[in-house]
From TrEMBL, chain A:
One of the record's GO cellular component terms: MKS complex
Coiled coil: none
Gene that encodes it: Tctn1
UniProt keyword Glycoprotein, yes or no: yes
Protein name in the entry: TECT1 protein
Species per Swiss-Prot/TrEMBL record: Tychaedon coryphoeus
Gene Ontology biological process terms, A to Z: cilium assembly; protein localization to ciliary transition zone
Lineage of the species this protein comes from: Eukaryota, Metazoa, Chordata, Craniata, Vertebrata
UniProt-listed PANTHER family: TECTONIC FAMILY MEMBER, TECTONIC-1
Domain Tectonic-1-3: 156-313, 323-510
Automatic annotation (TrEMBL), chain B:
Cellular compartments per GO CC: ciliary transition zone; membrane
InterPro entries assigned: Uncharacterised_TM-17
Annotated compartments: Cell projection, Cilium; Membrane
Organism of provenance: Tychaedon coryphoeus (Karoo scrub-robin)
Name of the protein: TMM80 protein
GO biological process terms on file: non-motile cilium assembly
Positions in coiled-coil regions: none
Protein origin, superkingdom: Eukaryota
Chief location of this protein within or outside the cell: other
Membrane-spanning residues: 13-35, 47-66, 78-99
Keywords noted in UniProt: Cell projection, Membrane, Transmembrane, Transmembrane helix
Origin organism lineage: Eukaryota, Metazoa, Chordata, Craniata, Vertebrata
Membrane topology term: Multi-pass membrane protein
Amino acid sequence: PADTRDAARVRSAPAPLTDVARLCVCDLLVAQCDVNCCCDPDCSAEDFSLFTSCSVPVVTGDSQLCNQKAAVYSLDVEANPPERIFKLIDQVNPSIFCIHATNYKQALYLKSPEIPTPENFDRLLEKFGGASFRAEPDSWDLDTDAQNPPEANETSRYEYGVPVQTEDAFLRLPSPVVTSWCSDANPAGFLVNQATKCIRSVSVEKCDSIQALSMLFYINSSILASVFQVDITVQSIVVQSLDGMRTLLSSSDVLRLPMVLDDLCINAVLGVNYHITHTDTGEIIEAAAAFVLGAISKEELSIEQSFEISFTQANTQPVPLSGNPGYVVGLPVRAGFQPQGYPSPAAFLSNKHSQLTILQSTSTQDCLAAQGARAPVLFGYNMISGCKLRITAAMKCQPLAQTLLDVLKGQSFPEYVASFGNSQAQDVLDWVPITQLHISEQMVSHTLQSPCQIPVSLGIEVKWTKYGSLVNPQARIVNVTATITTTTLKQLPSGRERIIPITSSVVFTDISSPAEPSYKAWPTINIKLPFDFFYPFV
Amino acid sequence: NNSSQLSSLPLQILLYINGIYYIFYFLATLAMIIYKSQVFSYPDDLLAPDLAVLFLMGILEVPRLYLGFKGNLTEAEAPLGLSLGLTVGSVVLCVYLLLWQTYVLWADVLLNAVLLSTYGLESGLKITAIAAFVS
């Protein structure tokens, strides 16, 4: 049939144009005359008479040939009207190393690209079908042989952002570069907590040969740290089934490598979570990886892998810092309690949940219905929130006052606030006590009975200052005052009800004094004559 | 030619000059092949035959010249005949380098033309010498 005959015909790219008389570099517009292009065949004699010069005066082949034809174009401005002169001359290269002849046809021309045919399509697709034509950078591993191995005292201490070194190159955290495809060349930086997701192209047939799908790829090289090498242990393995259900495996010491089973590729790595433990001097002492393994079906051509790395200091509970050392705007204000035994200097109780919080407004706006919805106080963000309290005649004052106090202050209102974003619980002096003030809205009336006061608003004022160098000032909390404003609850006649707004607010005030740059004292010239300078006379 | 001496003096001179010229020719051609491989596109599967031909010619030249000297000086026709046979091989290789090399530079043409003419003249003189020795 016709299509097989077509397929059998050899397809080739158009032959290179070598006739210099027909070659024209400045002929860019099709069927139109290009300005000042003397070799353009679309130009007529009238067009040539309007040209000022020839943009392409000579068209030749390779100048290294000994003897070749050259087409010379010029404008004869003397004639009226100006006309184009076309000459075909023999150009001679006088050099003794000119090419007299060549038996290699492609020597002087650009290589014609291979035209895809049904026969060579698969081969061309394999070679050129990827995002880039270069193979995976295996030179990654070869580079470290050329480098001098790092000195022991250099690897012992890592600094923030320095790539974590392993036996071969760096600890890899595959991440998307430009496109969403995974690049294995992203090193993990020390103390830089990262989480990345990227897409990797897979095929079920070659799944046991794709390195990045196997657990070994992520744990086989050990991390260089001080004198020892820290092996990456497998912390846990979670197996994800095709429908997304995850199961934690009980034994995580068996290495599960990808293999093909019934048109599926099982034990393929879908996610890795590195946990690196370090000391406070920057030495890595432990490394663990938690894997999520999954199955790839035959139809899937790509899977999404997610990677995460987190750094924890040894012997500490990971407490998220709100700044280092000064508070960062937008991070929660850290607070804590003084455990029993004050004034003996004891550590503060501060955990992830001990934050300064205020009431969070809800859609119902009913104070008594809004149970426990609180928002953390973020440094630098002034907040105001509130709710409406419906008072009926039947309500008793004392319980109501207590309930409102709970609504305003929350279940565990902290006693101390961290002065710096990274204040450690052990450093007692880095914590600022919360001053509690009580303002009564109304003066005590002249009635004899003590009126019942209910709190109607809580205002937290946080005074902070800029601390440290002029160039890089750090925010430091100096004073925290919590003011409760109370008002008298007037007894309502039965059947009536009243709605009172309850508000709580947080205000951050900058009390930093204007910075005064201080300069070094001018050096003084210290001239003192020796004691016995005028010896014979004094 | 003196009646007592059958050895050909012109042949001797020519063989001597040929030896010196060949050393220059070999080095120059090798240098030019290296130059061509750097400046032009010279794939390995075309570079190998050119280098092989050059080295083969160099290997042939040594016995060829030796046999020529020996044959001429000892007035023996056998070595001279063998040398003539080797000359035929050298001529073929020289023609290859002149016409069928990957890149034939103008300097290549000059060098090979001179060598070919030397071979031609030498062959003529050798035939004359053999005829003189045989008779």
